[in-house]
Amino acid sequence: MGIFRFTRAEFTKIFKKPSAYIMAGFLVVVALFGYFIYKPQVSPTYLANIEYKDTDTVGGLYERYLDGTLSQSDSNVRYEQNFTQANQILLNYSHDTERVKTLTADAAVVNSKFLTLLGVSGLETTPTDAMNAAIREMSDVLNTLEDDIARMQSSYGTTLYGVSEYVNSTTYSDGMKNINDLKQVLQSGGNVASTINLNSYMEKLNEFVSQSIYYLNSTIEYYQKNITSAANDYTSTYSTVPIDQHQSYRKTLISQLIAYNNYVTNLLDNQSKGYAIVVITADAKKKYSDQYEYLSTQLQMSRADDVITGSSYDNINNILKDSSNLENLFDSTKNIRTLSLSPDIVDELNKFYTEVVLPQKDAINTEIDEYASTNSTSNTTEDKDGFIRVISKQKSLSENTQTLFASIVNDNILKDMSTDEIHALYGFNFNTYNTYSANENIAKYRYMIENELYNFEVGEPFDLTHTSTGKISAYDFTYFIVSVSMIAITLFAIFMITNLISTENDNGTIKMLLTRPYQRYKIITGKMFATLLFAVIFLLFVAIVSLCAGWGLYGINMTSVVTVFNGTTAMSINPILLLLIFLLCCVLKISFYIILAAMISILFKTFPASIIVNLIVYIGIIVMDIFLGGFGWYAYLPFADLMLFSYFGSHSIGSTNGMLSSLLSSPFQGQVPMIASILITCAFAVFMLAITYHTFNKRDY
After folding, report:
1. Strands 569-573 and 561-565, sheet pairing
2. Is the pLDDT of residue 655 over 70?
3. Hey, how many other C-beta atoms are within 10 angstroms of the C-beta on 593?
4. What is the pLDDT confidence band of residue 158, given thresholds at 50, 70 and 90?
5. Angle at which helices 607-628 and 575-604 pack, to 10 degrees?
6. pTM of the complete model beyond 0.90
7. How many C-beta atoms lie closer than 10 Å to residue 178's C-beta?
8. For the purposes of burial, counting CB atoms within 10 Å of the CB of 27, is it exposed (0-12), middle (13-18) or buried (19 or more)?
């Protein structure tokens, strides 16, 4: 007797059970319950948010669109800001990469010329032709180095944060002075070696180049030196100067601390920039803030201009004499990590912006101008809505470009960090940052820009709490109802496979079946296939009923959905096909629980014991999904990512929205690639099947 005949026989048994019909009725109740609780948040339409009056013309809207008075957020001014920010991201890292590359090359040439100069004979005697030639070469490369460092202000000052502070520091002025001092010595015509120590100057210039490359850290050290100097002035003269001098030193120290804090605070203000310049751990940032607040209180910064009491000056002196107070403030900023991109990434961004974004931006601007010119005097609703759709293309492109560039920068900067390390960082909402989600954004927006797709023209992947488009669709409703029903269908499948296996143990019919010349594995396989077949029928029943009901209630929206498969491959897909993929993923999830329940039923034999253990395990998995789903390690468990549909972009990264969502879908981390997740789940399923078949074959009934 083949597996198919066993499956058919077991299916007939299920079909004759009253519980099957009770389950069908229960599913109808669940679907009705789902209808009454289905209150999704309607996703934005992504059209430009523009209100107009009946008397407004397209030409009038166009003029207001250009000068920024159309609305606060939707106007050419706003969209250009998005492009400017995207370009600012590009310029920041382009200039930073160019600056580091140039200064590093200059330093190598300077060192080479230093070694050439040191190797020339006659440095301590009358200059020779060879020495004069080496001196001229050294002077030339020093001029180049001086010009390239000076370019930090002239060329990069508007794109690189903190350049102005650096070039106004003594670190910069002292470094430039050393270059000029060496140039003057070389050009004086005297004996070089008897005038200066070339090795010492080579060390100074190398240090200056390093300080210019890592200028943010150099500026931090500059401010720290100023604070330390002001503190030393206060403590070293405290016993010898009058109280008004204490006040003068105190005000100097306060001004230095404020300047330092302003610089550090602005440096760490990543959130407003949209991309990372530096990162620091949240613990280090808190340590800095706490210590600065402590010093602010002790120095009475709020009364910086007031002459305070003598005892207060005494207290400040004692605070400053304890070097650990300033050291604690400075130590926390040592954890600031300056960020950079590889030249390849910078070149890729430049090419994408120049060859893809700008031509599309120009084409949209031309389309806007032509539409406004053609329909300038029209005040029909149709023409004004058409104008809104045209400028919505610019809105979509500008926002997607800015998001794409920021995501690429952040992803490349953070890609070598673990999830725990990223979540420990300060700013950018790093505590909820997810690499998988970031890669999804990169794939999605790159795909949309390259294929000239705009947000208002496409839908989002199905979600339990949001609609996929700007209005509820039958597909959204079906996705929700099926998700709600999955709990009942899975429980039914668990109950049914347990009943088919354990009941035969309890009433002894399994002994009669085993007396026949059937291979035992076919008996168990037939029961599992029959249960799965019935579960699939219920699943399709719910899907068809809910789709028809949704069609009648909300209508069918055939807007294509842009989804990202496995976090890397974006595609535009028909919502019907996406719904079928979802149903297939549901079948695979049910299959896992049927295998798990079959194993437990074989191990525990009796129906009461088997069903209790199965329910405990199933409920336990749901509870673990809710409370442990946010942890990265949880994704490696075989039952963590059972709903493979999450890999098609339908998921909540890190957490779910509300208790119902928590019950219906576990938080998705994307820690494990889809193929690895499938392999982990399949390996565990094979392991469970092996235990099931082995135990059933060896058991003496």
Report:
1. antiparallel
2. no
3. 23
4. confident
5. 130
6. no
7. 17
8. buried
